[in-house]
Amino acid sequence: QSVLTQPPSVSAAPGQKVTISCSGSSSTIGSNYVSWYQQVPGTVPKLLIYENNKRPSGIPDRFSGSKSGTSATLGITGLQTGDEADYYCGTWDTSLGVVWVFGGGTKLTVL
Amino acid sequence: EVQLVESGGALVKPGGSLRLSCATSRFTFRNAWMSWVRQAPGKGLEWVGRIKTNTDGGTTDYAAPVQGRFTISRDDSKKMLYLQMNSLKSEDTAVYYCTAQLANWGQGTLVTVSS
């Protein structure tokens, strides 16, 4: 069971918008930056969002991140079939030492 | 473009040891906090541990499942990252990724622990 909770799956039609939630606690999301990763099946995870809402160079602005309290959200607009992937949130957990934790992952299906 | 290339993955028996290496290039390795992340077959991502820069003390932190069995080290002169894995268990079977600042990832190397 992950320290960060994500829905197992979400789905939406091409062109639509989808959001993926990531719920944590005061020692994780509540006090640290959140990152989001995309992993297309059979490929290496790719950083989509860092420091809650910043996009690395090359990541389109269709991808956005936000954080409120102990939860974070990844938003994807203008869905494309190529967005079908697993998405993971991650952050530091400072409750017992300092460890990085990932959410369990959310499978996005573009119908 | 940042390059990270892992090597050393293999089939090993339970209780055995293995050392993974990660060759890096095209970024200032000595300034990067480096992590290992693993992914068991069909499962999600699991952080293994991290080593800070030598400027920041070069200290390490580990996930609970590997604490006391795995050791991360770095050689800034060679721009190399290592993961020494001892007392391996079947549940350590996974693809192991080397990451720079949890932003750039290598292609991964497969470790299989089985008798």
Give a short summary of the structure.
Chain A has strands at 9-12, 18-23, 35-39, 46-49, 63-68, 71-76, 85-93, 99-102, 106-110. Chain A has 111 residues and is mostly beta strands. In chain B, the strands form two sheets. In chain B, strands 2, 4, 5, 6, 9, 10 and 11 form a seven-stranded mixed sheet that branches. Chain B has a four-stranded antiparallel sheet with strand order 1-3-8-7, with no helix packed on it.
Word description of this protein:
The complex is a heterodimer of chains A (111) and B (115). With 111 residues, chain A is mainly β. Chain A has strands at residues 9-12, 18-23, 35-39, 46-49, 63-68, 71-76, 85-93, 99-102, 106-110. Chain B has 115 residues and is an all-beta fold. In chain B, strands 2, 4, 5, 6, 9, 10 and 11 form a 7-stranded mixed β-sheet that branches. A 4-stranded antiparallel β-sheet of chain B has the order 1-3-8-7, with no helix packed on it. The model of chain B has no long low-confidence stretch (mean pLDDT 97).
Describe the sheet with the most strands of chain A: 6 strands, mixed
Quaternary arrangement of the chains shown? heterodimer
Evaluate the radius of gyration of chain B: 13 Å
Biggest sheet overview of chain B: 7 strands, mixed
Net shape of chain B: globular
Number of strands of chain A: 9
User: What is the helix/strand order of chain B?
Assistant: EEEEEEEEEEE
Structural class of chain A: mainly beta
Report low-confidence residues of chain A grouped into runs of 5 or more.
none
Spans of chain B of at least 5 consecutive residues whose pLDDT stays below 50 are: none
Q: If helices are DSSP runs of H or I spanning 4 or more residues, what is the number of helices of chain B?
A: 0
Taking the alpha carbons of the first and last residues of chain A, their distance comes to: 28 Å
Overall geometry of chain A comes to globular
How much helix is in the residues of chain A? under 10%
Query: Hey, which two chains have the biggest interface?
Result: A-B, 22 and 19 residues
Tell me how many strands of chain B there are: 11
> Given the structure, what is the number of helices of chain A?
0
